[in-house]
Amino acid sequence: MSDVTIRRALLSVSDKTGLVELGQALAARGVELVSTGGTAGALRDAGLDVMDISDLTGFPEMMDGRVKTLHPKVHGGLLAVRDSPEHAKAMAEHDIGAIDLVVVNLYPFVQTVMKGADRDEIIENIDIGGPSMVRSAAKNHAWVTVLTDPADYAAFLAELDEENGATSYDFRRLMAARAYAATAAYDAMISQWFAFADQQQLFPEMLAVTAARVEELRYGENPHQRAALYVPVGPHAKGIAQAEQLQGKALSYNNYNDADAALELVAEFKGQAPAVVIVKHANPCGVAQAASLLEAWQGALQCDDVSAFGGIVAVNVPLDGPTAEAICAIFTEVVVAPAADEAARAVFAGKKNLRLLITGDLPDPRRTGLLIKPITGGLLAQSRDNGAISEADLKVVTKRQPSEQELKDCLFAWTVARHVKSNAIVYARDGITAGIGAGQMNRRDSSRIAAMKAAEAAEKFGWAQSRTAGSAVASDAFFPFADGLLAAAQAGATAVIQPGGSMRDQEVIDAADQADLAMVFTGMRHFRH
To answer: Into how many domains does the chain fold?
Structure first.
Protein backbone atom coordinates (compact mmCIF):
# COMPACT_ATOMS: atom_id res chain seq x y z
CA MET A 1 0.00 0.00 0.00
CA SER A 2 1.22 3.49 -0.86
CA ASP A 3 1.30 6.69 1.11
CA VAL A 4 -1.85 8.85 1.01
CA THR A 5 -1.48 12.62 0.97
CA ILE A 6 -3.84 14.46 3.32
CA ARG A 7 -5.80 17.03 1.31
CA ARG A 8 -9.18 17.15 3.06
CA ALA A 9 -9.88 16.56 6.76
CA LEU A 10 -13.19 16.12 8.55
CA LEU A 11 -13.05 17.15 12.22
CA SER A 12 -15.88 16.59 14.73
CA VAL A 13 -14.79 16.22 18.33
CA SER A 14 -16.34 16.30 21.77
CA ASP A 15 -12.97 16.52 23.54
CA LYS A 16 -11.35 19.61 22.03
CA THR A 17 -7.95 19.04 23.64
CA GLY A 18 -5.29 19.91 21.05
CA LEU A 19 -7.93 20.68 18.39
CA VAL A 20 -6.81 24.19 17.52
CA GLU A 21 -3.14 23.22 17.32
CA LEU A 22 -4.03 20.30 15.06
CA GLY A 23 -6.22 22.51 12.86
CA GLN A 24 -3.46 25.09 12.56
CA ALA A 25 -0.91 22.45 11.62
CA LEU A 26 -3.22 21.02 8.95
CA ALA A 27 -4.07 24.46 7.54
CA ALA A 28 -0.39 25.30 7.34
CA ARG A 29 0.03 22.25 5.10
CA GLY A 30 -2.80 23.38 2.83
CA VAL A 31 -5.34 20.83 4.08
CA GLU A 32 -9.00 21.74 3.59
CA LEU A 33 -10.91 21.64 6.90
CA VAL A 34 -14.50 20.40 7.10
CA SER A 35 -16.22 20.45 10.45
CA THR A 36 -19.43 20.40 12.47
CA GLY A 37 -21.10 22.56 15.15
CA GLY A 38 -18.94 23.40 18.12
CA THR A 39 -15.80 22.00 16.52
CA ALA A 40 -16.19 24.34 13.55
CA GLY A 41 -16.80 27.24 15.93
CA ALA A 42 -13.62 26.52 17.89
CA LEU A 43 -11.55 26.36 14.71
CA ARG A 44 -13.05 29.60 13.38
CA ASP A 45 -12.42 31.33 16.70
CA ALA A 46 -8.76 30.46 16.14
CA GLY A 47 -8.87 32.24 12.79
CA LEU A 48 -9.03 29.17 10.57
CA ASP A 49 -11.10 28.74 7.41
CA VAL A 50 -13.60 25.91 7.86
CA MET A 51 -16.27 24.42 5.62
CA ASP A 52 -19.47 23.51 7.48
CA ILE A 53 -20.62 19.93 7.03
CA SER A 54 -23.96 21.29 5.80
CA ASP A 55 -22.17 23.04 2.91
CA LEU A 56 -20.49 19.75 2.02
CA THR A 57 -23.70 17.69 2.10
CA GLY A 58 -26.17 20.31 0.92
CA PHE A 59 -28.37 19.53 3.92
CA PRO A 60 -28.61 21.50 7.16
CA GLU A 61 -27.91 19.95 10.52
CA MET A 62 -31.30 18.91 11.87
CA MET A 63 -33.17 17.21 14.70
CA ASP A 64 -31.11 18.91 17.41
CA GLY A 65 -27.91 17.84 15.69
CA ARG A 66 -28.88 14.16 15.60
CA VAL A 67 -28.61 14.20 11.80
CA LYS A 68 -25.65 15.98 10.28
CA THR A 69 -22.97 13.55 9.08
CA LEU A 70 -25.16 10.58 8.08
CA HIS A 71 -25.02 11.42 4.39
CA PRO A 72 -23.61 9.81 1.19
CA LYS A 73 -21.30 12.77 0.59
CA VAL A 74 -19.68 12.05 3.94
CA HIS A 75 -19.62 8.28 3.95
CA GLY A 76 -19.03 8.04 0.20
CA GLY A 77 -16.00 10.28 0.66
CA LEU A 78 -14.79 7.97 3.44
CA LEU A 79 -15.57 4.55 1.98
CA ALA A 80 -14.59 5.04 -1.66
CA VAL A 81 -11.83 2.77 -2.87
CA ARG A 82 -9.68 5.30 -4.68
CA ASP A 83 -8.23 2.99 -7.32
CA SER A 84 -11.59 1.41 -8.19
CA PRO A 85 -12.97 2.72 -11.54
CA GLU A 86 -16.51 1.94 -10.39
CA HIS A 87 -16.07 3.92 -7.15
CA ALA A 88 -14.43 6.77 -9.00
CA LYS A 89 -17.33 6.90 -11.44
CA ALA A 90 -19.89 7.04 -8.58
CA MET A 91 -17.94 9.82 -6.89
CA ALA A 92 -17.90 11.86 -10.11
CA GLU A 93 -21.59 11.28 -10.85
CA HIS A 94 -22.72 12.34 -7.38
CA ASP A 95 -20.12 15.06 -6.74
CA ILE A 96 -18.56 13.20 -3.81
CA GLY A 97 -15.13 14.42 -2.77
CA ALA A 98 -12.60 12.20 -1.06
CA ILE A 99 -11.98 12.67 2.66
CA ASP A 100 -8.44 11.71 3.62
CA LEU A 101 -8.48 12.32 7.36
CA VAL A 102 -11.18 11.88 10.00
CA VAL A 103 -10.63 13.33 13.46
CA VAL A 104 -13.47 12.25 15.71
CA ASN A 105 -13.91 11.54 19.40
CA LEU A 106 -17.28 10.57 20.71
CA TYR A 107 -19.98 12.13 22.87
CA PRO A 108 -19.06 11.96 26.58
CA PHE A 109 -21.40 9.10 27.42
CA VAL A 110 -19.51 7.80 30.48
CA GLN A 111 -18.92 11.28 31.88
CA THR A 112 -22.65 11.98 31.53
CA VAL A 113 -23.50 8.81 33.43
CA MET A 114 -20.95 9.53 36.15
CA LYS A 115 -22.25 13.04 36.84
CA GLY A 116 -25.67 11.55 37.69
CA ALA A 117 -27.57 12.83 34.66
CA ASP A 118 -31.15 11.75 34.08
CA ARG A 119 -32.05 9.07 31.57
CA ASP A 120 -32.98 11.46 28.75
CA GLU A 121 -29.65 13.26 28.94
CA ILE A 122 -27.78 9.96 29.01
CA ILE A 123 -29.61 8.76 25.91
CA GLU A 124 -28.83 12.04 24.11
CA ASN A 125 -25.14 11.40 24.77
CA ILE A 126 -25.15 8.17 22.80
CA ASP A 127 -23.20 9.14 19.71
CA ILE A 128 -24.43 7.80 16.34
CA GLY A 129 -22.75 9.86 13.63
CA GLY A 130 -19.34 9.79 15.31
CA PRO A 131 -18.97 6.00 15.52
CA SER A 132 -20.34 5.69 11.98
CA MET A 133 -17.67 8.00 10.59
CA VAL A 134 -14.95 6.34 12.64
CA ARG A 135 -15.95 2.87 11.45
CA SER A 136 -16.19 3.97 7.82
CA ALA A 137 -12.76 5.59 7.92
CA ALA A 138 -11.19 2.68 9.79
CA LYS A 139 -12.64 0.14 7.36
CA ASN A 140 -11.16 2.08 4.45
CA HIS A 141 -7.80 2.59 6.14
CA ALA A 142 -6.12 1.70 2.87
CA TRP A 143 -6.97 5.27 1.87
CA VAL A 144 -8.17 7.13 4.98
CA THR A 145 -6.45 8.10 8.24
CA VAL A 146 -8.61 8.15 11.39
CA LEU A 147 -7.73 9.74 14.73
CA THR A 148 -9.93 9.10 17.78
CA ASP A 149 -7.64 10.19 20.61
CA PRO A 150 -5.96 13.59 21.11
CA ALA A 151 -2.96 11.67 22.44
CA ASP A 152 -2.31 10.52 18.84
CA TYR A 153 -2.19 14.01 17.31
CA ALA A 154 1.54 14.49 17.91
CA ALA A 155 2.41 11.13 16.31
CA PHE A 156 0.17 12.00 13.36
CA LEU A 157 1.88 15.35 12.77
CA ALA A 158 5.27 13.68 13.05
CA GLU A 159 4.10 11.19 10.42
CA LEU A 160 3.12 14.04 8.10
CA ASP A 161 6.56 15.58 8.52
CA GLU A 162 8.29 12.29 7.80
CA GLU A 163 6.09 11.39 4.82
CA ASN A 164 5.93 14.86 3.22
CA GLY A 165 2.29 15.55 4.05
CA ALA A 166 1.13 11.94 3.68
CA THR A 167 0.57 8.95 5.97
CA SER A 168 1.95 5.47 5.51
CA TYR A 169 -0.17 2.35 5.33
CA ASP A 170 1.32 1.04 8.58
CA PHE A 171 0.33 4.23 10.41
CA ARG A 172 -3.20 4.15 8.99
CA ARG A 173 -3.57 0.51 9.93
CA LEU A 174 -2.45 1.22 13.51
CA MET A 175 -4.90 4.11 13.83
CA ALA A 176 -7.70 1.94 12.40
CA ALA A 177 -7.07 -0.70 15.05
CA ARG A 178 -7.23 1.94 17.76
CA ALA A 179 -10.39 3.37 16.22
CA TYR A 180 -12.23 0.05 16.30
CA ALA A 181 -11.05 -0.49 19.87
CA ALA A 182 -12.49 2.94 20.76
CA THR A 183 -15.90 2.24 19.20
CA ALA A 184 -15.99 -1.25 20.70
CA ALA A 185 -15.29 0.15 24.15
CA TYR A 186 -17.88 2.89 23.63
CA ASP A 187 -20.58 0.42 22.61
CA ALA A 188 -19.62 -1.89 25.47
CA MET A 189 -20.08 0.91 28.00
CA ILE A 190 -23.49 1.74 26.56
CA SER A 191 -24.39 -1.94 26.70
CA GLN A 192 -23.29 -2.12 30.33
CA TRP A 193 -25.34 0.93 31.25
CA PHE A 194 -28.46 -0.49 29.64
CA ALA A 195 -27.94 -3.89 31.29
CA PHE A 196 -26.83 -2.96 34.79
CA ALA A 197 -28.16 0.56 35.47
CA ASP A 198 -31.18 0.90 33.21
CA GLN A 199 -32.46 -2.70 33.18
CA GLN A 200 -31.11 -3.75 36.61
CA GLN A 201 -29.74 -7.03 35.23
CA LEU A 202 -27.07 -8.81 37.24
CA PHE A 203 -26.21 -11.29 34.50
CA PRO A 204 -27.15 -9.86 31.07
CA GLU A 205 -27.53 -12.21 28.12
CA MET A 206 -24.48 -10.65 26.50
CA LEU A 207 -21.73 -9.51 28.86
CA ALA A 208 -19.67 -6.75 27.26
CA VAL A 209 -16.40 -6.23 29.10
CA THR A 210 -13.75 -3.77 28.00
CA ALA A 211 -10.47 -2.68 29.55
CA ALA A 212 -7.51 -0.50 28.63
CA ARG A 213 -3.92 -1.66 28.94
CA VAL A 214 -1.91 0.30 31.49
CA GLU A 215 1.39 -1.48 31.07
CA GLU A 216 3.05 -4.72 30.06
CA LEU A 217 4.60 -6.49 33.02
CA ARG A 218 7.99 -8.18 33.18
CA TYR A 219 6.34 -11.61 33.14
CA GLY A 220 3.36 -13.50 34.54
CA GLU A 221 3.21 -15.90 37.46
CA ASN A 222 6.35 -17.51 36.02
CA PRO A 223 9.13 -16.11 33.82
CA HIS A 224 7.98 -18.05 30.73
CA GLN A 225 4.53 -16.38 30.89
CA ARG A 226 3.72 -12.93 29.52
CA ALA A 227 1.47 -10.50 31.41
CA ALA A 228 -0.06 -7.04 31.33
CA LEU A 229 -2.12 -4.81 33.60
CA TYR A 230 -5.51 -3.60 32.34
CA VAL A 231 -8.07 -1.34 33.98
CA PRO A 232 -11.80 -1.24 33.17
CA VAL A 233 -12.98 1.46 30.78
CA GLY A 234 -15.76 3.50 32.36
CA PRO A 235 -16.95 3.77 35.97
CA HIS A 236 -15.22 1.36 38.34
CA ALA A 237 -13.96 1.17 41.89
CA LYS A 238 -10.43 2.42 42.44
CA GLY A 239 -7.97 -0.04 43.91
CA ILE A 240 -4.44 -1.36 43.65
CA ALA A 241 -4.33 -0.69 39.89
CA GLN A 242 -4.74 3.05 40.55
CA ALA A 243 -2.26 3.27 43.44
CA GLU A 244 0.61 5.73 43.07
CA GLN A 245 3.99 4.00 43.16
CA LEU A 246 6.40 6.30 44.96
CA GLN A 247 9.50 4.16 44.63
CA GLY A 248 10.92 0.76 43.85
CA LYS A 249 11.26 -1.40 40.76
CA ALA A 250 8.30 -2.21 38.54
CA LEU A 251 5.59 -4.40 39.99
CA SER A 252 5.26 -7.96 38.73
CA TYR A 253 2.10 -9.95 38.06
CA ASN A 254 2.44 -11.69 41.43
CA ASN A 255 3.11 -8.37 43.19
CA TYR A 256 -0.14 -6.95 41.86
CA ASN A 257 -2.08 -10.06 42.80
CA ASP A 258 -0.70 -10.19 46.34
CA ALA A 259 -0.97 -6.43 46.88
CA ASP A 260 -4.60 -6.60 45.81
CA ALA A 261 -5.28 -9.38 48.33
CA ALA A 262 -3.62 -7.31 51.07
CA LEU A 263 -5.59 -4.17 50.16
CA GLU A 264 -8.90 -6.04 50.05
CA LEU A 265 -8.33 -7.41 53.56
CA VAL A 266 -7.02 -4.21 55.16
CA ALA A 267 -10.03 -2.36 53.70
CA GLU A 268 -12.18 -4.38 56.11
CA PHE A 269 -10.70 -2.16 58.82
CA LYS A 270 -11.38 1.13 57.04
CA GLY A 271 -12.03 3.89 59.58
CA GLN A 272 -11.06 1.66 62.50
CA ALA A 273 -8.07 1.40 64.82
CA PRO A 274 -4.66 0.94 63.17
CA ALA A 275 -4.43 -2.40 61.37
CA VAL A 276 -1.65 -4.24 59.55
CA VAL A 277 -2.04 -7.08 57.07
CA ILE A 278 0.86 -9.20 55.84
CA VAL A 279 0.18 -11.33 52.76
CA LYS A 280 2.20 -14.07 51.09
CA HIS A 281 1.03 -15.77 47.91
CA ALA A 282 -2.41 -14.10 48.18
CA ASN A 283 -3.01 -15.47 51.70
CA PRO A 284 -2.71 -13.43 54.89
CA CYS A 285 0.01 -14.76 57.16
CA GLY A 286 -0.50 -12.15 59.88
CA VAL A 287 -3.16 -9.56 60.75
CA ALA A 288 -3.42 -7.33 63.81
CA GLN A 289 -5.17 -4.26 65.19
CA ALA A 290 -3.72 -2.18 68.00
CA ALA A 291 -3.59 1.27 69.54
CA SER A 292 -0.65 2.20 67.30
CA LEU A 293 0.44 1.09 63.84
CA LEU A 294 3.80 -0.09 65.20
CA GLU A 295 2.10 -2.34 67.74
CA ALA A 296 -0.17 -3.70 65.01
CA TRP A 297 2.88 -4.45 62.86
CA GLN A 298 4.57 -6.31 65.68
CA GLY A 299 1.47 -8.37 66.37
CA ALA A 300 0.94 -9.26 62.72
CA LEU A 301 4.59 -10.18 62.21
CA GLN A 302 4.71 -12.46 65.24
CA CYS A 303 1.89 -14.58 63.84
CA ASP A 304 4.22 -16.05 61.19
CA ASP A 305 7.46 -14.13 60.70
CA VAL A 306 8.88 -16.87 58.46
CA SER A 307 6.13 -16.49 55.87
CA ALA A 308 6.27 -12.68 56.22
CA PHE A 309 9.76 -12.68 54.69
CA GLY A 310 9.40 -11.32 51.14
CA GLY A 311 5.73 -10.54 51.73
CA ILE A 312 3.31 -7.74 51.04
CA VAL A 313 2.29 -5.31 53.80
CA ALA A 314 -0.88 -3.22 53.81
CA VAL A 315 -2.04 -0.75 56.45
CA ASN A 316 -5.31 1.10 56.97
CA VAL A 317 -3.89 4.42 58.24
CA PRO A 318 -1.03 6.64 57.06
CA LEU A 319 2.41 5.12 57.57
CA ASP A 320 4.73 6.70 60.12
CA GLY A 321 8.50 6.60 60.45
CA PRO A 322 8.83 4.09 63.34
CA THR A 323 6.53 1.60 61.60
CA ALA A 324 8.44 2.04 58.34
CA GLU A 325 11.71 1.30 60.13
CA ALA A 326 10.23 -1.86 61.66
CA ILE A 327 8.90 -3.04 58.30
CA CYS A 328 12.31 -2.49 56.72
CA ALA A 329 13.92 -4.71 59.33
CA ILE A 330 12.83 -7.69 57.20
CA PHE A 331 12.79 -8.15 53.44
CA THR A 332 9.48 -6.77 52.17
CA GLU A 333 8.41 -6.68 48.52
CA VAL A 334 5.57 -4.13 48.59
CA VAL A 335 3.99 -1.78 51.14
CA VAL A 336 0.47 -0.47 50.51
CA ALA A 337 -0.91 2.48 52.49
CA PRO A 338 -3.46 5.28 52.10
CA ALA A 339 -0.64 7.75 52.78
CA ALA A 340 2.88 7.97 54.24
CA ASP A 341 4.46 10.80 56.20
CA GLU A 342 7.85 12.28 55.31
CA ALA A 343 9.66 10.20 57.91
CA ALA A 344 8.25 6.97 56.49
CA ARG A 345 9.12 7.99 52.94
CA ALA A 346 12.68 8.80 54.00
CA VAL A 347 13.06 5.36 55.58
CA PHE A 348 11.74 3.54 52.53
CA ALA A 349 13.95 5.63 50.23
CA GLY A 350 16.89 3.68 51.63
CA LYS A 351 15.39 0.46 50.26
CA LYS A 352 15.56 1.07 46.52
CA ASN A 353 13.83 -2.16 45.50
CA LEU A 354 10.94 -1.91 47.98
CA ARG A 355 7.76 -0.68 46.28
CA LEU A 356 5.70 1.86 48.17
CA LEU A 357 2.13 2.18 46.88
CA ILE A 358 -0.12 5.03 48.02
CA THR A 359 -3.83 4.46 47.48
CA GLY A 360 -5.17 7.76 48.84
CA ASP A 361 -8.16 5.89 50.23
CA LEU A 362 -9.27 2.35 50.87
CA PRO A 363 -11.91 0.63 48.72
CA ASP A 364 -15.35 -0.05 50.16
CA PRO A 365 -15.30 -3.73 51.23
CA ARG A 366 -19.10 -3.88 50.83
CA ARG A 367 -19.14 -2.59 47.26
CA THR A 368 -21.09 -4.47 44.63
CA GLY A 369 -19.91 -5.71 41.26
CA LEU A 370 -19.06 -8.83 39.30
CA LEU A 371 -16.06 -11.11 39.64
CA ILE A 372 -15.10 -12.87 36.41
CA LYS A 373 -12.90 -15.94 36.20
CA PRO A 374 -11.83 -17.61 32.96
CA ILE A 375 -12.22 -21.36 32.63
CA THR A 376 -11.49 -23.60 29.67
CA GLY A 377 -13.94 -22.59 26.98
CA GLY A 378 -15.76 -19.91 28.97
CA LEU A 379 -16.08 -17.45 31.82
CA LEU A 380 -17.57 -17.78 35.29
CA ALA A 381 -19.24 -14.67 36.68
CA GLN A 382 -20.47 -14.08 40.20
CA SER A 383 -21.40 -11.17 42.41
CA ARG A 384 -18.72 -9.98 44.80
CA ASP A 385 -18.62 -11.60 48.22
CA ASN A 386 -19.65 -8.43 50.05
CA GLY A 387 -21.75 -10.15 52.69
CA ALA A 388 -21.13 -9.02 56.24
CA ILE A 389 -22.27 -9.99 59.69
CA SER A 390 -22.48 -8.17 63.00
CA GLU A 391 -22.74 -9.36 66.56
CA ALA A 392 -26.53 -9.16 66.24
CA ASP A 393 -26.43 -11.75 63.43
CA LEU A 394 -24.70 -14.40 65.53
CA LYS A 395 -26.60 -17.38 66.89
CA VAL A 396 -25.18 -18.99 70.03
CA VAL A 397 -25.63 -22.75 69.71
CA THR A 398 -23.71 -24.04 72.74
CA LYS A 399 -24.60 -24.23 76.40
CA ARG A 400 -21.86 -21.77 77.27
CA GLN A 401 -22.39 -18.19 76.16
CA PRO A 402 -19.33 -16.42 74.70
CA SER A 403 -17.87 -13.57 76.70
CA GLU A 404 -17.72 -10.06 75.30
CA GLN A 405 -14.02 -10.48 74.47
CA GLU A 406 -14.64 -13.84 72.86
CA LEU A 407 -17.28 -12.28 70.62
CA LYS A 408 -14.84 -9.55 69.57
CA ASP A 409 -12.21 -12.16 68.81
CA CYS A 410 -14.74 -14.26 66.90
CA LEU A 411 -15.69 -11.35 64.66
CA PHE A 412 -12.05 -10.39 64.09
CA ALA A 413 -11.10 -13.97 63.20
CA TRP A 414 -14.15 -14.19 60.91
CA THR A 415 -13.14 -11.00 59.09
CA VAL A 416 -9.70 -12.43 58.37
CA ALA A 417 -10.99 -15.91 57.48
CA ARG A 418 -13.12 -14.58 54.63
CA HIS A 419 -9.88 -13.52 52.91
CA VAL A 420 -8.04 -16.81 53.43
CA LYS A 421 -8.08 -19.51 50.76
CA SER A 422 -10.39 -22.39 51.60
CA ASN A 423 -10.31 -24.50 53.62
CA ALA A 424 -9.62 -21.66 56.02
CA ILE A 425 -9.05 -21.70 59.77
CA VAL A 426 -8.02 -18.58 61.70
CA TYR A 427 -7.19 -18.32 65.41
CA ALA A 428 -7.28 -14.84 66.91
CA ARG A 429 -6.94 -13.27 70.34
CA ASP A 430 -7.07 -9.62 71.39
CA GLY A 431 -7.19 -8.36 67.80
CA ILE A 432 -4.19 -10.40 66.63
CA THR A 433 -4.14 -13.51 64.47
CA ALA A 434 -2.55 -16.35 66.43
CA GLY A 435 -2.44 -18.87 63.60
CA ILE A 436 -3.73 -19.20 60.05
CA GLY A 437 -4.36 -22.43 58.16
CA ALA A 438 -5.06 -21.93 54.46
CA GLY A 439 -5.88 -23.86 51.32
CA GLN A 440 -5.95 -27.37 52.72
CA MET A 441 -8.05 -30.18 51.29
CA ASN A 442 -9.68 -30.81 54.67
CA ARG A 443 -10.56 -28.56 57.57
CA ARG A 444 -8.84 -30.66 60.22
CA ASP A 445 -5.45 -30.15 58.57
CA SER A 446 -6.09 -26.40 58.35
CA SER A 447 -6.82 -26.40 62.10
CA ARG A 448 -3.63 -28.31 62.86
CA ILE A 449 -1.44 -26.18 60.61
CA ALA A 450 -2.75 -22.98 62.16
CA ALA A 451 -2.11 -24.35 65.66
CA MET A 452 1.37 -25.52 64.65
CA LYS A 453 2.23 -22.03 63.36
CA ALA A 454 1.08 -20.56 66.67
CA ALA A 455 3.14 -23.05 68.65
CA GLU A 456 6.25 -22.24 66.60
CA ALA A 457 5.75 -18.53 67.28
CA ALA A 458 5.40 -19.13 71.03
CA GLU A 459 8.65 -21.09 71.09
CA LYS A 460 10.50 -18.56 68.97
CA PHE A 461 9.42 -15.52 70.97
CA GLY A 462 9.67 -17.22 74.36
CA TRP A 463 6.01 -16.97 75.31
CA ALA A 464 4.75 -19.04 78.20
CA GLN A 465 1.97 -20.40 75.99
CA SER A 466 0.71 -20.19 72.45
CA ARG A 467 -1.58 -17.32 71.52
CA THR A 468 -4.17 -19.92 70.57
CA ALA A 469 -4.72 -20.44 74.29
CA GLY A 470 -7.92 -18.55 75.06
CA SER A 471 -8.40 -17.63 71.42
CA ALA A 472 -11.39 -17.64 69.10
CA VAL A 473 -11.24 -19.78 65.99
CA ALA A 474 -13.06 -19.02 62.74
CA SER A 475 -13.89 -21.50 60.02
CA ASP A 476 -14.94 -20.15 56.62
CA ALA A 477 -17.40 -23.05 56.16
CA PHE A 478 -19.09 -25.51 58.51
CA PHE A 479 -17.21 -28.28 60.28
CA PRO A 480 -18.41 -31.45 58.51
CA PHE A 481 -17.11 -33.52 61.41
CA ALA A 482 -16.15 -32.77 64.98
CA ASP A 483 -12.46 -33.53 64.38
CA GLY A 484 -11.60 -30.03 63.10
CA LEU A 485 -13.30 -28.42 66.07
CA LEU A 486 -11.57 -30.80 68.51
CA ALA A 487 -8.21 -29.89 66.96
CA ALA A 488 -9.01 -26.27 67.72
CA ALA A 489 -9.97 -27.14 71.29
CA GLN A 490 -6.71 -29.03 71.73
CA ALA A 491 -4.87 -25.90 70.61
CA GLY A 492 -6.53 -23.97 73.44
CA ALA A 493 -9.34 -22.14 71.63
CA THR A 494 -12.29 -21.29 73.84
CA ALA A 495 -14.71 -19.87 71.27
CA VAL A 496 -15.69 -20.88 67.76
CA ILE A 497 -17.37 -19.00 64.91
CA GLN A 498 -18.59 -20.89 61.86
CA PRO A 499 -21.49 -20.77 59.37
CA GLY A 500 -23.28 -23.91 60.53
CA GLY A 501 -25.50 -25.85 58.17
CA SER A 502 -23.87 -29.29 58.27
CA MET A 503 -25.87 -32.50 58.55
CA ARG A 504 -23.69 -33.18 61.61
CA ASP A 505 -24.15 -29.78 63.25
CA GLN A 506 -25.53 -31.37 66.38
CA GLU A 507 -22.55 -33.70 66.64
CA VAL A 508 -20.23 -30.70 66.40
CA ILE A 509 -22.31 -28.75 68.93
CA ASP A 510 -22.20 -31.69 71.35
CA ALA A 511 -18.43 -31.88 70.97
CA ALA A 512 -18.17 -28.14 71.66
CA ASP A 513 -20.30 -28.50 74.79
CA GLN A 514 -18.18 -31.40 76.00
CA ALA A 515 -15.04 -29.29 75.52
CA ASP A 516 -16.72 -26.29 77.24
CA LEU A 517 -16.41 -24.17 74.10
CA ALA A 518 -18.69 -21.30 73.22
CA MET A 519 -19.79 -21.51 69.60
CA VAL A 520 -21.75 -19.16 67.35
CA PHE A 521 -23.22 -19.72 63.90
CA THR A 522 -23.17 -16.97 61.28
CA GLY A 523 -25.43 -18.55 58.67
CA MET A 524 -23.05 -17.23 55.98
CA ARG A 525 -20.24 -19.11 54.29
CA HIS A 526 -17.12 -17.50 52.81
CA PHE A 527 -15.39 -19.98 50.53
CA ARG A 528 -12.49 -18.39 48.63
CA HIS A 529 -10.98 -20.33 45.78
So the answer is: 3
